[in-house]
Amino acid sequence: MAIISRGFHGRRPDPGRKLPPGQYEVHDFPVLSAGPTPHVTHDEWEFTLTTETGARHTWDWAQLMAMPAETPTVDLHCVTKWSKFGTHWEGVSLDSLMEDVETAADFALVHSYGGYSTNLPLEDLLDGKAWIAHRYDGEELAPEHGGPARLLVPHLYLWKSAKWVRGIELLLDDEPGFWEGLGYHSYGDPWREQRYQGD
Amino acid sequence: MHRKAKEGADAERRRLTTTRRGAAPGTTSPAGSESQVLRARAPLRWLVAELVDRRAESRTAQTLVFDVPGWPEHLAGQHVDVRLTAEDGYSTQRSYSVASAPDGDRVELTIQRVEDGEVSPYLMDVLERGEQVELRGPIGGWFVWRPERAEPVLLVGGGSGVVPLMSMVRTRGALGGSAPFRLLYSVREPDDQLYVPELLRGEPGLDTEYLYTRAAPPEHPRPVGRLRAEDLVRGGWPADQRPICYVCGPTGFVENAATLLTGLGHDPGRIRTERFGPSGG
């Protein structure tokens, strides 16, 4: 039974907008990360999918740019409580990148330049739910927001949308990523408020 | 479509039997042992927190002192979630860094007022002593300092980003940590400084230096301006002493400080950052 805060009225989101539990709406784009922002040039950038058998599929920047791009407009929900509605991205669907990849994996461990990682079920990356995003709001993705490219998987809390993405390991067994190893939830569904382990 | 060659393995069942290994591969950090400790923790429950005292820290910041029965002791640098619920059941949450050292059921939060904010004006102006909010934590296992660590520590705080750093300073003092600390504390002007008497008093092994970005006290030797490399050279540690660096503040401040530190040769894996913005407050 929640404690009622005397005299607290609070704000409600705009009509027609639904916030996940415990979230509030922001209009700016807060930046969060655990360490210094890596600065990766397009020339250095590479993205590698590695299957459970060790097979590697690698794209450089030009190859990524040659892939069909999609322009999803999505809502973002950060575990630190802010939500941002209607953000415009451009990126390559994971469905396109996975097209020629043979795997029996159920899990994915995403790796970033700078050492960050995050885990999620492979099915959450497929069927139009995830992108390697390289443009935000009509412009190149800024380094502090994860440029040159970040994973975008907006139906989960934003820490799953790894900035500075450099690869995805496909795994038969789940392995915790950076925050998942530090007490955060393994799956992270904002609508079920899965912020921390045990939620 | 990719070929998913599943051979009778039931995905749902497999998900329930996840393997837990040690440190996550790819993290350039000593986080392995720390994460093991946190992983063994029970789920975080909402606890009842009663306001027992409040102190003004500046024109726009207050420290709220809560009594939280059942509080699991926090580490310096961790934060909590605070939940407020209105009479009609609407509720919202915010995260606040713990400012105090571990002290039983006592938890101190320093709240920076967000003009027109939904939560901070309530906590600062409406909530009375003896009243309760809900709180859960401690949260975050990365931006933490443990008193058993002996290497030099550089704390770089911008504005209210000094709050979790203050918890580290206080924890070192209370538990007798031996690590030498240097604190670089950047504020716009003297009126914005938090914890003034306590930092002025100082303590052995802690060197504190103030940087003012807009207006400095008349006798202050440094010209006003944002954090520069020479500030980190003068007030920090040489990279070859391998300090661990904690940087907390607004985004622009953190980006600048972390970039300058890596430019001075500090290992990016030893620079831990936390953003502390007034967004949405």
Automatic annotation (TrEMBL), chain A:
What name does UniProt use for this protein?
Answer: Molybdopterin-binding protein
Q: Which residue intervals define the domain Oxidoreductase molybdopterin-binding in the entry? A: 35-179
Which Pfam families does the entry link to?
Oxidored_molyb
| SUPFAM superfamilies in alphabetical order | Oxidoreductase molybdopterin-binding domain
Using the UniProt annotation, give all residue ranges assigned to the region (Disordered): 1-23
Q: Which PANTHER family match?
A: OXIDOREDUCTASE MOLYBDOPTERIN-BINDING DOMAIN-CONTAINING PROTEIN, PROTEIN-METHIONINE-SULFOXIDE REDUCTASE
